[in-house]
Amino acid sequence: MTNEIKKGVTVYISPELTLANQWIQGTVIKVHENPFLGTVISAETADRNVFFGISSMFRTQQAS
What number of other Cβ atoms are within 10 A of residue 63's Cβ? Predict the structure, then answer.
């Protein structure tokens, strides 16, 4: 999954991270390899909020 997630890609951010009721769309602004956590992604939403977390908190397609 993380192979297709790179800077500028549109992703959906998990409600576990955003505390929203549904997955929220955002744009990846940074992808970082953390030696302890693995791939960490930062994404910015349309309202300019930035969320970051491990790659499993992000999807490239809308969750059902």
Answer: 9
